[in-house]
Queue: 4 jobs
Job 1
Amino acid sequence: MQPVCSGQKPPRTMPQITCQGTTVNDLQKLLDEINQNLSETEDRGRVADYIPELAKQDSRKFGMAIATVGGQTFATGDADEAFSIQSISKVFALTMALGRVGDALWKRVGREPSGTAFNSIVQLEYEKGIPRNPFINAGAIVTTDIVLAGHKPKETIGEMLRFVRSLADDDAIFIDEDVARSETETGFRNVALANYMRAFGNLRNPVDQVLGVYFHQCAIAMSCVDLARAGLFLANKGVNPLAGVRIVPLRRVRRINAIMMTCGHYDGSGEFAFSVGLPGKSGVGGGILAIVPDVASIAVWSPGLDENGNSKLGTVALEKLVTKMGWNVFGA
Ligand code: GLN
């Protein structure tokens, strides 16, 4: 049984809660408790195996980090270990693509939940090559095409890596070439999606170039601590508080967060909103980035996935944290 929290609702910016008579004024303690509680869990879901290199991940890994807009970072478990962010990279690619073409992006990608798997092809036929949203694979391949326009693939990959490094303020973030190669060798569905969209005229660059960039962006490897920091601009009205630099206007942050809430977990997006209640983006590496607007950015990593390809334990951990902190955006 989980302890039932009582007492005063915490101010949204102060990590202080009262739980069963004990004041937990330390997010660190709470994170360690969650880690400890979950460490015994047997059913951790299944590690992604359709990308062979990801199948090598150890399903017992668990890390979680919180970066607050005030500049503090809290971490537990394997939060300093780099993992493959996979589809979480779609948030950064969308941010860059919006920076390139602004609202013109919405002519080529929708912003409605798909209700289908992340790599589904059926909807594309009905909707004439315009993907439902930028977080399913087809939509992310279009945003990558937009970022690539006018550049060489290598330059674009470098630019994406530099963007994420600067957000997290960590030059150690890297691209795992083994993961990129593994997906290049086996990513037949993505090849199909890209060719299909190219046939509809919704890809402007050669398919192999777009996918080359896409596979490399998905292969960015970083830790929970880095990821939580990199997401801070989404929690802080568009400004990265670490560097004091505006990344995007507030209006755009609201929109990115809205799409994370409605589409960030594919066909599990409704369930994630229901149980966690935060904008979030998952990746098949087992990571989730979740945003508490105006308060904090959270990253969690546990490689075992549920049936929708979202981290099983990661979701449970977020639900526990959010419930205790009163961080659910639908009401504390
Ligand atoms: N690189 C993966 C793919 O394209 C990303 C999918 C994901 O993380 N959901 O299949």
Note: Residues 1-24 have pLDDT under 50 and may be disordered.
Job 2
Amino acid sequence: MGRRFEGKVVVVTGGGAGIGRASARGFAGEGARVVVAGPRGESIEETVGIIEGEGGVASAVVADVTRAEDMARLVRTTVERYGALHIAHNNAGIFGKPTPVGDLDPADWQHVLDVNLTGVLLAMREEVGHMRAHGGGVIVNTASNIGYHGRRPGMAAYAASKAAVSALTKVAALDHIGDGIRINAVSPGATDTTMSLRPGESDADRAARLATAVPAGRVASTQEIVNAVLWLASEESSFVVGHDLVVDGGVTA
Ligand code: NAP
């Protein structure tokens, strides 16, 4: 792989695990200086340690995407540390407890919306605020194939939040392409992280379930999702604006 992000400064939210960790490693592996954000110091510091072990440059900022002040501090700290913010991957998300609509606790609904949807808005507000005053930038949001593209029973809060991330991404892209900020989304299908494991399910159980549920016959690797994120963040996609790129092995084809 080349060094598409040499000289770039990148923020990744939800960078302490799964797709976010793989994204942070991917950007750093191609030359970016990466700020890894998440609500717990331990996991994001672990991501930083992995990146440094691979010869990359990264540092951590403890920040919860549901807190506007944390998102402001995340962008401020990034710029203080590295002098810029060029790219953001707004990836933090939670699955919530699968529940039929009739039994959904409004507090659980609100929490999923707060993290998955409002978290993306709060992050983008700060990122756009900096980028439009400093020559532009690129933002990639993580949506899901559950939401705008497809639905599953029991997933009302998650699906509604992710469909809204798709819509928010497109509106934000229209709002800010004139400021030189290119905004897109990636919508993964079931990916090899703890999020895609059902309660009590082993990796082998998941593989057996997805062998028939996914046309491609398997779970996605985090790298397969990150490949799409990096492409949308790179100059190779310079005319792609407001797109929501589904990477789901054909589930919603
Ligand atoms: P994951 O392994 O559970 O990682 C999610 C990350 O988000 C964790 O590092 C978590 O931090 C962080 N996070 C949770 N709440 C946060 C908050 N309030 N503020 C900041 N960070 C927060 O899940 P993943 O599979 O990598 O998912 C990443 C994204 O992909 C999510 O948006 C998810 O909805 C989406 N996605 C995943 C799949 C899949 O099958 N895995 C499919 C479609 C879409 P802690 O660990 O410290 O709590």
Note: The domain at 9-247 is CATH 3.40.50.720 (Rossmann fold).
Job 3
Amino acid sequence: MNKIIIAIDGYSSTGKSTLAKQLAKKLNYIYIDSGAMYRAITLYFLQNEIDCNHLDSIRYALSQIHLNFVHQQIHLNGMNVEEIIRSMEVSNLVSEVAALEQVRVFAVQQQQFLGKERGIVMDGRDIGTTVFPDAELKIFLTAQEDIRSQRRFDEMKLKSETITFLEVKTNLAHRDHIDSTREFSPLTKAIDAVVLDNSHLSMDEQLEIAYRWAMEKVMG
Ligand code: DC
């Protein structure tokens, strides 16, 4: 069977990684969470107090960063940081870091390398437009803003993070704004992407739709 590349893009907390993970499992493909890479870079910048306005510091910091995935969990310089990169501290800064041109070049190069054998599902903001413009299937996932904020809020409460609904909603709106208005590869729907609005779909329903689209492409 043909191995294809599946790009899943969309705003924050639309459930991209849930769908991407389930789809990859069903197709026996590799799953890559590109957002985790930007989050891990942000964590390094925070830990090492890197000045985002200083090009040389950014360049040096990137030369010290090694990212890899082990069982779908991101590792930063050999340490599993999958959990800590989801903290509010990282969430509040990640869009600013991800907007830096050097950071994007660094991450995109690694993402393209990971997809060279195809058979991959990658989710993010610019996967269908910049990372894999030749992806066979591009899904642009959307959901109403309040529904997205509620889902994220519920998820964070489960992890017993002390946070209000308003803080979550404000963070999502802030990230969406920066992600879609930045100069380098902003979040935008690729012209050949199919829109999937999951506001009123269950996880099983959205998986079924995406899987059907994928199989149509695999069968060519
Ligand atoms: O998917 P996420 O919320 O974990 O992503 C974290 C941030 O990383 C998001 O606010 C924007 C950025 N990002 C990006 O700029 N490009 C990607 N391909 C993936 C994420």
Note: The longest helix spans residues 165-181.
Job 4
Amino acid sequence: MSEFTPRTSAALARAIVLAAKARSAMSAGASLEKALEASCQDASPQEKAACQALVYTATRRHMLAQAILTILAQRSPEAQIKAILLVSLSELIESPQKSYVICNEAVKAVKSINSRAAGFANACLRRFTRERDALCAKALERDEVRFNAPVWWINKMRGALGTTKADKMMALAQKRPPMTVRVNRRKITPVDWCAIAQSAGLQTRPLGQSAVMLENPVPVGDLPGFAEGLVSVQDAGAQLAAQFLAPQNGQRILDACAAPGGKTAHLLELADCSVTALEVDSMRCKRIHENLQRLGLKADVRTSDATDIACWHDGTPFDSILLDAPCTASGIVRRHPDIVFSRRPGDIEALAKQQKRLLEALWPLVKFGGKLLYVVCSVFKEEGQDQIKNFLSRHPEAELAPVAERAPLMLTLAASEDDQESFPGIAPVHDGFFYALLLKH
Ligand code: SAM
């Protein structure tokens, strides 16, 4: 999802109320996407865009705003007012140059809920603008506030990547992600698309084989040629999946966990192969159809549990399988900042079991001499390195191959802005992923 902020001050008060409603739903357990959808049911596209930007900022600044509000308010205000104040404080933290407008519109938002709370809200927000540096410095002394994540998550990240790398990645997760597109090479070359984009006023930076990063995010509909299928939005790290699987003309390929279809489409853009795309969630399956239709591509899309082999498989083995398994998503927090708050420590083990079940069910479907690319957008060892080491110990017929020349046998890619730590070609901007390529003998 891209984030941009087409905000006018007049619409801001209404957007703050909508965003506060979404944040309250998230506190009660809803995902960011579902909460946004529900709170913006009756909103105009502009209001929704403004609300979305506020909700993302409020999620990325959640711990800091909360710590500051605790200092500012001696007693916790009623739930709706508190949610408005947290959204507004987050916005003040993010955009100090707009403090005047944000305070005014936040107070209007509070008045629309409870006029008696307006004075209190005004006092809190104005005090924050006066004492911002001292208040932030005090709150940021705690790691949970600094990294906007619960302590268990911070410890888990440090255990997986080492403190230096984990701290860098967690700091990066608080920034807006880059907007990266995948150029549909069936229709246009990246060089030609960049030329069109530049003439439309967009600054572009080619990253990998088909990846182009935009210096400034724009609404998806404003990407030149989007409706015609020239480009799709996809992170540069995610684009490595199809590159590593390297589909060939005539091959039969399974994309076992396919929605919303980004990697299915990429495979089809790279070769004249036949792809079976499975997805257990029927609503998400619709997104695969929509994406393929826009791009002018065809796949055998089925709603099915990939582990329920008898239900969907005709018995013919596949040349290649892409298993982009469900995971904690610890590598994509920058794009989905709610993840750290919705995950529980027990989820890692439960997801690792699900990944093992998928690996075991699908491996027999790879033909001898064929390959399976295992992918998770997580940097936790249980879902990556350990999962694959355990798989290899159970399967002597499986061998690890490097995903690319000079790449390690198992590639853990931490989101980074540091050229040295990234995979060549897509440096310096991508999400966190784990890749392992298994060959069958
Ligand atoms: N490959 C996709 C892409 O690039 O657009 C992203 C896949 S996402 C990481 C994992 C997907 O697997 C989710 O859509 C989830 O609903 C689906 N999934 C989870 N368990 C599954 C199963 N047993 N069979 C098929 N799909 C499953």
Note: The mean pLDDT is 94.
